[in-house]
Design brief:
Blueprint lengths: L3 E5 L5 H10 L3 E5 L2 H5 L3 E4 L4 H10 L3 H9 L4 E4 L1 H6 E4 L12 E6 L10 E5 L9 E5 L4 E5 L4 E6 L2 E7 L2 E4 L10 H13 L1
Parallel strand pairs: 1-2, 1-3, 3-4, 4-12, 5-6
Antiparallel strand pairs: 6-9, 7-8, 10-11, 11-12
């Protein structure tokens, strides 16, 4: 049976992640309420605006259930804003911004620059076969530092841009915008293994 993987559908590029997960062999569903979260095997936290996603998760009564599921071992994958949501610490948080946490890392928001400084680059990701993935960096964060339990899977320049810790995966870039579904295949395999 295919794993059921949710995409947190409060804000951001939800449709693209749903399509990439389906292509990777998962049953993909939108998650907006705690009871929908309770029904999934894993969760994707999409790109978007991390402050907005944080505030909406609190408003929708999802922040604590998200933290509980992640602490209990539910696999989660965050791209761009989703990476920020999975970080234990943000270097420069906006007022009122909270994270789900789970990955022992410190991230810097918008580290690669503003919207008009967005770019694409080939990124070698450990654990993904077949050559580099195309990384789409849009107002992307980078990882300033990781703790002992977090493993850096990819770097761009001097900065970590893909990190894994246990059942949690995070990328600075947006693989859901490229048509290359290998990052989603990696995450789907993580969800299968955790079931």
């Amino acid at each position: 049976m295919s794993p059921v993987i949710g995409v947190l559908a409060l804000q951001g590029d939800v449709r693209e992640h749903l399509a990439a997960l389906e292509a990777a062999g998962a049953d993909a569903v939108s998650v907006r309420r705690p009871e929908e979260l309770a029904a999934v095997d894993g969760l994707v936290l999409p790109g978007g605006e991390s402050t907005t996603i944080s505030k909406l998760a609190i408003a929708f009564g999802l922040m604590e259930p998200l933290r509980e599921r992640v602490r209990a071992g539910m696999p989660a994958y965050g791209s761009c804003a989703g990476m920020i949501m999975l970080a234990d610490k943000i270097l420069d948080p906006r007022s009122g911004q909270e994270t789900i946490g789970g990955i022992d890392m410190i991230v810097r928001r918008n580290a690669f620059g503003r919207q008009n400084e967005s770019f694409e680059a080939a990124v070698d990701v450990a654990g993904i076969e077949g050559g580099p993935v195309e990384g789409v960096f849009i107002r992307a964060p980078w990882v300033e530092s990781v703790g002992a339990r977090a493993e850096v899977l990819a770097r761009y320049g001097d900065h970590a841009v893909a990190v894994r810790q246990d059942n949690l995966l995070a990328t600075s870039f947006h693989p859901e915008l490229t048509g290359d579904h290998r990052v989603h295949q990696l995450f789907t395999a993580m969800v299968r293994a955790a079931r």
